[in-house]
Amino acid sequence: MGFYQLKKEQIIKRSPEEIWDFISDPMNLQIITPPTMGFSITSDLESNKMYPGMIISYKVTPLLGIPMTWVTEITHVEDKKYFVDEQRIGPYKMWHHEHILEEHPEGTRMIDIISYQPPFGFLGTAANMLIIKGKLQQIFDYRFHKIEELFN
Fold first, then answer.
1. What backbone torsions phi and psi does residue 60 show, to the nearest 5 degrees?
2. Rounded to two decimals, what is the model's pTM?
3. Among 16, 84, 112, 129, which is most exposed with the fewest C-beta within 10 angstroms?
4. In this predicted model, what pLDDT tens digit does every residue of 87-142 receive, in sequence order?
5. For residue 32, what is the DSSP state?
6. Which fold has domain 4-151?
7. Burial of 115 per CB tally in 10 Å (0-12, 13-18, 19+)
8. Residue 82 backbone dihedrals phi, psi, to 5 degrees
C-alpha cells in the first residue's frame, strides 16, 4: 500500500499576516480550487477563521463528474504560522495537509505538504500512478497560479 507526499512552495510578495487572513478563512477555499472540481462548502461555519477541532464538509466532483462528500478536521493551528487539515470522510484512506507560512525577505514563503494514501491497496497504488498524483499536481498548480494572480 503506497503512501505519498506532495510538497509545493511559493514566494508571495505580501506579509505573512495578509496571507494568513486569506488562507485561514475556509470560504476562500473555493477561490483557489479549480472550477472543474465542483467544490462547495456544505457545512454551516460558525467562524470565518480556522481553529483546532473545526469540521468542514464539502461536495467535490474530482473524477468523471461523480459528486462526493469530503469532511476535514482542522487539527492544529498556530496563528499566522500554520494549520493542518485531516480528512475524516472522503476519497483517501489517509489525508494530512500542512499549510505553513514563513517570513521571507521578499514577503512570505507558503508551503503545502500533502501526505496521503489512496484506498484499495494495490489498486489505489495503480490509480495514484495513473490518475491521482497528476490530478493533485493540477489542483496545486491551479492554486499556485491563483495565489500569484491575487497577491503578486
1. -140, 155
2. 0.91
3. 129
4. 999 989 999 999 999 999 999 999 999 999 998 888 877 877 888 898 899 999 99
5. T
6. Alpha-D-Glucose-1,6-Bisphosphate; Chain A, domain 4 (3.30.530)
7. middle
8. -165, 160
